[in-house]
Amino acid sequence: MTGEQTEKPGRKPRIRDAEATKARILDAAKKEFAKNGLGGARVDDIAEKAKANKRMIYHYFESKEGLFQTVLEDAYLDIRSAEQKLHLEDLDPKAALEKLVRFTWEYYLKNPEFLTLVNSENLHRAKHLKKSEIIKVSSRKLVNMVASILERGVKAGLFRSGVDPVQLNITIAAVGYYYLTNRFTGTIIYERDLMAKDALEQRIQFNIETIMRLVTV
Amino acid sequence: MTGEQTEKPGRKPRIRDAEATKARILDAAKKEFAKNGLGGARVDDIAEKAKANKRMIYHYFESKEGLFQTVLEDAYLDIRSAEQKLHLEDLDPKAALEKLVRFTWEYYLKNPEFLTLVNSENLHRAKHLKKSEIIKVSSRKLVNMVASILERGVKAGLFRSGVDPVQLNITIAAVGYYYLTNRFTGTIIYERDLMAKDALEQRIQFNIETIMRLVTV
DNA sequence: TAAAGAAGTAACTAGTTAGTGCGTTAATTG
DNA sequence: CAATTAACGCACTAACTAGTTACTTCTTTA
């Protein structure tokens, strides 16, 4: 009676979809790596959360580190792509710079996993990111965009000259990143709820002020 | 000749020394936790590096997390203590602020373990630091010091009023911390050796400029 | 439609890891 | 000097963990 094809009432039909499974694994992995770091993440937990078999992880990503690398690369590509969609070149220099500062802040706020992934990667001395050429290319675009905003600002007599676009880029990231990645220790050290709605509002205003004063003549 | 016991010439110094063993464990643990994070650190490796038996770690610190907590607390106490030794109250507002920016940068540069420990603690939502009252007290002193510098600067007509000392404190830390903790990914993203001597020199100048422009009238 | 191949699974392995039980040895004290 | 206390070490374990083997089930296509 083994050849019986009639489906049992409680049995779900097994749907096969490689892309969907891959995506579920990547999504679960992103959360797990962000929550526990590369070392603390558990492959079994990722498989369970993704509703996939652990074997599939090794089938699609070769190893735990291979999975981490893909997660990290995707995360960088996502923020770089979102930055390009801002079309800062269509705005006047001041508005463009403010929009970038605001965007960076809001992206970190809405995607806290990005911060933890980057921290984790730095703990491992960027060994995974080193292998990625596409990340370099897409980052170059961002630096060029900031350089262009600065140039236009100088020409318009709004910004002082001599500001290094790389340093500016780093600083725009820094004032948001540090506040948010260290929000837990920060809340204790400064005895203030750094994640309260008005605290966040105050911080983004402070960051805009910081960057604007930095470039203004 | 006061403390001189009846020590025989050829005799080795004390083989048993609880304080020395504790100190060796803490030192080894700091390095191991900084290098691999709390999750990635190995208790066996710490014991080996400390030239102590693993049993001693559990004897003195109860658990891996107990050891981490002590390491973290010591790290915070060290930077807070160093900050107090700057005697910023003896300097004029501008010099005091610049000295603090420079000190913060140099402390991070010389003590990169501090950055990784703080990152690790934030990955764990500050569960260890939460338990420490002494950290809050010593941090309060720093915030008060910055508040006092700001006040003196405003009175002297050098600084604008309305700058939140907590936000300023956070920003002073941010511009150094982000650059250094993300030096590995940063070197790839910005295609520039961020740790080259002239790059470091350029960054500290940029940071001073950023903070000074932020508070100046 | 049959065969190939891709998607998916359960159970396993070999190595690792935090934490301990219990005995030994050095220093202190009555 | 004996008794006590504290420092120290060996060897173990129970649980965990990345990665694999060997298999079944579904989908595509010649």
UniProtKB/TrEMBL annotation, chains A, B:
<dbReference type="Pfam" id="PF00440">
    <property type="entry name" value="TetR_N"/>
</dbReference>
<dbReference type="InterPro" id="IPR036271">
    <property type="entry name" value="Tet_transcr_reg_TetR-rel_C_sf"/>
</dbReference>
<dbReference type="InterPro" id="IPR001647">
    <property type="entry name" value="HTH_TetR"/>
</dbReference>
<keyword id="KW-0238">DNA-binding</keyword>
<dbReference type="Pfam" id="PF17938">
    <property type="entry name" value="TetR_C_29"/>
</dbReference>
<dbReference type="InterPro" id="IPR050109">
    <property type="entry name" value="HTH-type_TetR-like_transc_reg"/>
</dbReference>
<feature type="domain" description="HTH tetR-type">
    <location>
        <begin position="19"/>
        <end position="79"/>
    </location>
</feature>
<dbReference type="GO" id="GO:0003677">
    <property type="term" value="F:DNA binding"/>
</dbReference>
<dbReference type="InterPro" id="IPR041474">
    <property type="entry name" value="NicS_C"/>
</dbReference>
<dbReference type="InterPro" id="IPR009057">
    <property type="entry name" value="Homeodomain-like_sf"/>
</dbReference>
<protein>
    <submittedName>
        <fullName>TetR family transcriptional regulator</fullName>
    </submittedName>
</protein>
<feature type="DNA-binding region" description="H-T-H motif">
    <location>
        <begin position="42"/>
        <end position="61"/>
    </location>
</feature>
